[in-house]
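User: Predict the complex with guanosine-5'-triphosphate.
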Amino acid sequence: MLTAARLLCQSRWSLAAPRNLSSARAGSACLKPVSRMGTAGEQAEAARWQPARAPCRRRSSGAALAGEQLLLAETLSDWERQLLDRLLDGLLGGQRACLAEAITLVESSHKHKKCLARLLLQRVLTCQKERECSNGGKPLSFRVGLSGPPGAGKSTFLETFGKMLTGKGHKVAVLAVDPSSRTSGGSLLGDKTRMTELSRDMNAYIRPSPTSGMLGGVTRTTNESIILCEGAGYDLVLVETVGVGQSEFAVADMVDMLILFVPPVGGDELQGIKRGIIEMADLVVITKADGDFLVPARRMQAEYTSALKLLRYRSKNWKPKVTRVSSKTGQGIPELWEEIEKFKATLLESGELQIKRRKQQKVWMWSLIKENITEYFCDHPSVRNQIPSLEDKVVNGDITPGLAADILLKAFSTKE
Ligand SMILES: Nc1nc2c(ncn2[C@@H]2O[C@H](COP(=O)(O)OP(=O)(O)OP(=O)(O)O)[C@@H](O)[C@H]2O)c(=O)[nH]1
Ligand SMILES: [Mg+2]
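Assistant: Here is the predicted structure with guanosine-5'-triphosphate placed in the model:
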C-alpha cells in the first residue's frame, strides 16, 4: 500500500490542489500582468510572478494556513506548475542547475516566490522523509557547521577536505554564510576562488549565501538550502560561517555537528572567539599546523584541551576534542574525518542525532515566525501609516518609545 508520503510525492501539485476549493479560489490569487516595468522581457517576467491579490494572507488558525497552502497550489498558473515540477524532478535527479535555481527561489524575498518555494520545500521534505523511512528512519545526510574567526583557514580547509571526501565517493555541498556581504550585498566570491578545485568537482556543490542584511534571512535560507542540497543527494552538507556576530549561533541550530576553527595566533586575536561558541563546539580544530605555525599550533592545542575541561559538555555522549590540521600539507585531515565519523556514529547510536534534528525543526519554525512577524506588523495598514510620525515623535522625545509601541500594537490588534 502506498504511504501518504509517497502519495504526496507522486501526486505533486495536482493532488495538493483539490478540486473542491473552487469557491475559495474565486477570492484568491490569480496571476495578472503589471504594466510599469521596462523591457518587454521584464514585463513578461513580472507578469508571471504578479498575483492579483497577495496569496499569503494573514489567517487566524493552523487549519486556515494549511488551507492556504492548498489554495496556493490550486491557483498556480500552468507555468508555475511546470516550473515546480521541473525543479522537483531535476533536484531529485541530482541536477546541479536545478538545485541552484531552487536555492535562488528560496532566497527570494518576493512574496509569491516565497510561497512557491514553500511548496517546493514541502515536496522535497516529503520525499526525503520517504527516503529516510527506507533507510530505517536514519538521516541520509550529515550536516557540519564550520565556524571560526575571519582568516582562520576554513575555506582552504574545505577545499582539501571536500576533495578528500568526493574521492571517497561522497557528494559534498558547501554553503557559505558571509555576514560581511551585508555591506556589499554580494556573496562569497573570495571563498569560491579559494575552493577552485572543489568547485570544478562534479560531486561537489558550492553555494555562497548572501545574508540580505538580516540574521533571520541567514537562518531561513541556509536551513532551506540544506534541505534542498539533501534532496539533490548530497550526503555531506558543510556550512561555513564567520565567527562574527550571531551567525555562528544560528548555524549551530541547523547542523548536526559544529566545528570551531582556531588559527594558531595568540593574544588579542583570540579574544574575538566568544566563550559561548567554544561551548557549542563539538570539535575544536587548530588550523595552519605547518612551518612556523606548528609550534604555536601545538601550544594552542594544549591550551584549548585544558580550557575545554572546564566547560560544560553539550552532549552527554560526546566529549569535544581538540585536533590540529594543515590544509597546506594535508596533515591531520584524515584523522579529523575519523573524529567526525566517530561523532556521527555516537549520535546515531544513542538516537541523539534524530532528537537534535527534531528540536532544530522547532527552533527553525520559531525563527521563521519571528522573522515574519515584524514584516506582517509593519505591513498592517493601520500600523504602516503611523510608523513614520511615531518614529519622529520618539526621536524628538515627544513621547516615550513604550507609548509609541503601545499605540502601534493597539492599531495592529484592531480589526482592519
Ligand atoms: N600556512 C598555512 N596557511 C593557511 C592554511 N590554511 C589557510 N591558510 C591561509 O590563511 C589565509 C586565510 O584562509 P581562508 O581559508 O580564506 O580562511 P577563512 O577562515 O575561510 O576566512 P574567512 O572566509 O574570511 O572567514 C589564506 O591566506 C590561506 O592561504 C594552512 O593550512 N597553512
Ligand atoms: Mg572563508
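Residues 352-379 form the longest helix (28 residues).
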